[in-house]
Amino acid sequence: MAKGTDQLRKLAIVPAFNEAGMVARVIRDIRKHAPDFDIVVVDDGSTDTTAAHAEAQGAAIIRHPFNLGIGGAMQSGYKYALRKGYDVAVQVDCDG
Q1: How far apart are CA 63 and CA 75, in angstroms?
Q2: Which helix (H) or strand (E) covers residue 89, if one does?
Q3: CA 23, CA 95: separation in Å to the nearest integer?
Q4: Long-range contact set of residues 32-38: C-beta below 8 Å, sequence gap at least 24
Q5: Residue 46: is it exposed, middle or buried by C-beta count within 10 angstroms (0-12/13-18/19+)?
Q6: How far is the C-alpha of 42 from the C-alpha of 78, rounded, in Å?
Q7: How far apart are CA 46 and CA 63, in angstroms?
Q8: Which of 80, 25, 22, 71 is CA-nearest to residue 44?
Q9: Helix or strand holding residue 28 (H, E)
Q10: Distance between CA atoms of 61 and 18, rounded to whole angstroms?
Q11: pTM of structure
Q12: Phi and psi dihedrals of 15, rounded to 5?
């Protein structure tokens, strides 16, 4: 039997590189406009406090030890979605 859209597990993947100034706002905006989405921030080798700000907002974090670029960050996010059993995964830019 097919799931209704309200039953789908949904994930917002937020790739971020040195976005300490924006990541908390982006997470709050996702929660406001898409409250049924879980959030994972892919900290793509940031040298600032991006991960700490995202974690403080309650987002799941994937940390890359160095910058892989948008392709690598999204690949990590989609692999996370697959491992965790999400039905829908979308990218949300972190630059506001």
Answers
A1: 13
A2: strand 88-91
A3: 8
A4: 34/10, 36/6, 36/10, 37/10, 37/11, 37/12, 37/90, 38/9, 38/10, 38/11, 38/12, 38/86
A5: buried
A6: 10
A7: 9
A8: 71
A9: helix 23-33
A10: 14
A11: 0.92
A12: -75, 135
Which amino acid, residue 51?
A: A
Contact between residue 81 and residue 10 where contact means Cβ atoms under 8 Å apart: no
Task: Look up tokens 């993947």; give the residue.
Answer: 13
CB atoms within 10 A of CB 86: 19
Q: Which residue has the tokens 């976005």?
A: 19
Residues 46-86 have pLDDT tens digits of 999 999 999 999 999 999 999 999 999 999 999 999 999 99
pLDDT tens, 42-51? 999 999 999 9
